[in-house]
């Protein structure tokens, strides 16, 4: 029995070790096991995992390539970058996520503390609490968010379901539809909103470019500039409104406080209470406010009322009737004529009489307002018959000596 070794209890006494080659030190080292005998394995890079069942805890992952499906993930510490995720079921908590490229379907996320850049998300069913989001490029449908902290910028948002509260939004680009929005704190710049069904309380809005249809708004504290609104449903209360551009139609307004300026207002159906509105008038050059006294009565300045003067000389007045210029007297409150015979010699009496007509083509009718110029002393005629058109007719007592008569018409607004 040469070269033979005999063990009394071979199964219990035989011991061996497994060695692996370490290329970095060019030596063989024993493979480690845990206290229970399980093999300790350290993996550097995992290129692809088809199905990953349940993972209790993963501390750190450098780069994770493509994961087809993850059923459930307990706690995920820090992930620098994830290229693509097919279906991600339920995530309890993610502490920090640098860049998340594309997610086809994201089920339920209980909490995300901080999210750097989120590329394209087709649909998110529900988010419990979303802390700070630096930028979202495109978001298709966002179902329900209990609390949304601060969003620096959203380029485009398809459909936003129900939002209980949004603290602050820096720049919000284009929103297609918002079903229900509870409280929106502050928005620096809101681009274009196609439709808002219901809005609870809107704090301060510096500027809104355009709104397609705005359903019901409970209260707006301060609104700086509102560009254009096609249809505005019901507004319960507006405290202060800076400049309102063009409004096609407003169904109903409960209480409207102070309005500084409204450029164009098509149809305003009903206003229960209108606070302060300044009435202005246009004088042909500028728009000026209309004044009232302490009791609210309209103040009219009668000292600076406007006069219009028309001057002419009618020559060759004989015993055949001659006529002065036809004047449209419909726009004047008071009308009068200053008449003087300016013939230098052979002055004869001249009768001057007012005649009126309702139209240019109608026959002029003589009135009782007339004077007789016996010499070069001027006379005054004041009309008591107010028709659209008025003219003077002149006739001398003889044809032997023709006369010259000067006429000054004065019309007062």
From TrEMBL:
Q: Which residues form the signal peptide?
A: none
Q: Where is the DUF6385 domain?
A: 328-412
- Official protein name in the record: DUF6385 domain-containing protein
| InterPro entries documented for this protein | DUF6385 (IPR045965), Homeobox-like_regulator (IPR053300)
Looking up Pfam families in the UniProt record yields: DUF6385
């Amino acid at each position: 029995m040469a070269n033979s070794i005999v063990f009394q209890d071979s199964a219990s006494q035989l011991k061996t070790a497994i060695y692996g080659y370490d290329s970095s030190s060019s030596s063989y080292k024993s493979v480690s096991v845990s206290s229970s005998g399980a093999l300790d394995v350290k993996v550097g890079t995992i290129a692809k995992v088809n199905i990953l069942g349940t993972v209790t805890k993963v501390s750190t992952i450098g780069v994770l390539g493509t994961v087809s499906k993850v059923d459930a993930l307990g706690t995920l510490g820090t992930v620098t970058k994830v290229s693509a995720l097919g279906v991600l079921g339920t995530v309890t908590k993610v502490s920090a996520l640098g860049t998340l490229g594309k997610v086809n379907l994201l089920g339920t996320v209980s909490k995300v503390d901080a999210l750097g850049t989120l590329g394209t998300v087709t649909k998110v069913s529900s988010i419990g609490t979303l802390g700070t989001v630096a930028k979202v490029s495109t978001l298709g449908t966002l179902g329900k968010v209990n609390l949304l902290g601060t969003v620096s910028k959203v380029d485009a948002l398809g459909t936003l379901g129900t939002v209980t509260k949004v603290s602050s939004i820096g720049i919000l680009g284009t929103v297609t539809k918002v079903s229900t929005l509870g409280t929106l704190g502050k928005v620096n710049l809101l681009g274009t909103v196609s439709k808002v069904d219901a809005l609870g309380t809107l704090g301060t809005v510096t500027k809104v470019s355009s709104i397609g249809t705005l359903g019901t708004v409970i209260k707006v504290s301060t609104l700086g500039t509102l560009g254009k609104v096609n249809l505005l449903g019901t507004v319960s209360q507006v405290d202060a409104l800076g400049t309102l551009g063009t409004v096609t139609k407003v169904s109903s307004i409960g209480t409207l406080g102070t309005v500084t300026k409204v450029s164009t207002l098509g149809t305003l159906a009903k206003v229960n209470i209108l606070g302060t509105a300044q009435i202005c008038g246009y004088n042909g050059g500028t728009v000026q406010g209309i004044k009232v006294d302490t009791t609210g009565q309209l103040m009219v300045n009668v000292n600076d009322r406007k006069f219009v003067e028309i001057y002419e000389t009618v020559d060759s007045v004989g015993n055949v009737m001659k006529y002065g210029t036809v004047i449209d007297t419909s726009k004047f409150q008071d009308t009068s004529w200053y008449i003087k015979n300016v013939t230098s010699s052979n002055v004869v009496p001249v009768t001057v009489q007012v005649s009126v007509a309702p139209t240019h083509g109608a026959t002029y009718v003589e009135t009782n307002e007339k004077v007789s110029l016996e010499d070069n002393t001027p006379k005054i005629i004041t009309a008591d018959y107010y028709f659209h058109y008025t003219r003077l007719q002149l006739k001398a007592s003889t044809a032997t000596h023709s006369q010259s008569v000067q006429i000054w018409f004065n019309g007062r607004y």
